[in-house]
Design a protein that fits this description.
Order of helices and strands: EEEHHEEEHHHEEEH
Radius of gyration: 23 Å
Oligomer: single chain
Number of helices: 6
Largest sheet: 3 strands, antiparallel
Structural class: alpha+beta
Shape: globular
Amino acid sequence: MAPTASQLYPIGERYFPVFKLNHPQGEKRSPVGILVGRQALRIAAAAQYGIELERDTDLLWIVEEVVSMKTLPDGWTAYTDQGTKRTFYNHKQSGKSIWEHPLSDFYRGAIFMARGGTETLLGTEEENPPTPDEVEAMAEYMDIQISEPAEVLDVVRQAVNAPLPPGWEEYLDEQGDTAFRNPKLKKSSTEHPLDKYFLELVERRRQEASVVPKTPPSPAPKSQ
């Protein structure tokens, strides 16, 4: 049976979840010990994003990024709140502190795309391929130059037909501009719910494109 977090246990300056396992007969709860270190953090991160560690192998990279802390955007640092023992993130330059990982919107977008969003996108592209004008307009909206690498422009093309996650709907606001809302979450925005996902994906494609492959060594000259 899957363990569930029941409390927090201090390990030095860090706090990790303590997990208990339900008895198969439902008569009692049997402690299975304290899980410490990276595995405990993996379990906590997976639970936060609804990822099954054994089943969702294609999404484990998200868990590893959250746990490693090395992929935090520039200027962000993770800390433990001494009152609640929860991890929070602080941006040194602005002084802003938040409870969720700075890339949480990107991760949720990636999960949605992996769980059907990409299939929906491909179906829409097949029926209505993005026109050059639509791609150019999206590039301008995302502040991307048309001269950028093909890997980056491919993300721009995908963003044209970005699907809406469950619960979200498109509508026209009072000014007649396109907006998005989620009645259940009581949220509304002028930005598409997947904007942050595609913008972060652009940055990662840029980094990949900037990596210059190493030139293989020249073969040794033939002896005369």
